[in-house]
Amino acid sequence: MANPLNGGCRDQMISLSVQAFIDLKSHTLRCQPFEACGILTGPDCNHLQQFIPVTNTAAQPRNHFTLDPAAWTSLLMKKAPVQALYHSHPSSPPLPSIEDLQQLQNFGGLFSSYLIGSPAASNHSGLPEREPDLELELSVYRITHSRHDQAAAGRSLWSLTAAGLLIT
Ligand SMILES: [Zn+2]
């Protein structure tokens, strides 16, 4: 399991493999207009190598996500080197919602980074007759842990800090 308290996880750049990006994007577009979700595995918290889609079992999947508990349990049993959690915002920017931050409190310790993707139509200038391709806008965050005294003062234990993304 990734340990976000590990000093090695403080790099501001997180690298994502091209294949993981392609898989994450196609899964996201296939799930539209519902939220897509999944996890990313990799050798350490700075390198995300593989995207594993997980079924979204939320009752209202247009604006909520819940990782299928059976799939999640089986990933944990296989001891997959889980590093990051991904979900999509089908029709809003890839910024954490209040609900996302509340949900993070339940599993912040299981991931070192957090990705949100939003499909966005990109217009090809000069080719107005073409249908716009759907592109994916991706935001990446480090999951950080507040000090216990701050948490005791009513602040969230787990929070998100924007990080940079390098697709390699
Ligand atoms: Zn969200």
In short:
Keywords: Hydrolase, Metal-binding, Metalloprotease, Protease, Zinc. By secondary structure, the chain is of the alpha/beta class.
Structure, described:
The protein is built from four helices and eight strands; from the N terminus they run E-H-E-E-E-H-E-H-E-E-H-E. By secondary structure, it is of the alpha/beta class. The chain has one domain: 3-Layer(aba) Sandwich (Cytidine Deaminase, domain 2). It has an eight-stranded mixed sheet with strand order 3-1-8-7-6-5-2-4, with helices on both faces. Strand 5 (82-88), helix 3 and strand 6 form a beta-alpha-beta unit. It is globular. Residues 1-6 have low confidence and may be disordered. Zinc ion binds at residues 87, 89, 97, 100, 116. One of its GO terms (biological process) is proteolysis. It holds the Pfam family Prok-JAB. Residues 25-118 form the JAB domain.
Work out the helicity level.
10-25%
CATH level-3 fold name: Cytidine Deaminase, domain 2
- End-to-end separation: 23 Å
Query: Can you name the CATH architecture?
Result: 3-Layer(aba) Sandwich
Based on secondary structure, the structural category is alpha/beta
CATH superfamily annotation: Cytidine Deaminase, domain 2
Specify the number of helices. 4
So what's the CATH class? Alpha Beta
- Unreliable runs: 1-6
Shape: globular
The strand count comes to 8
Q: Radius of gyration over alpha carbons?
A: 16 Å
Main β-sheet description: 8 strands, mixed
Which hetero compounds are present in the coordinates? zinc ion
The spatial strand order of the largest sheet comes to: 3-1-8-7-6-5-2-4
* Number of separate domains: 1
Beta-sheet strand percentage? 25-35%
**Overall average residue pLDDT:** 86
Order of helices and strands: EHEEEHEHEEHE
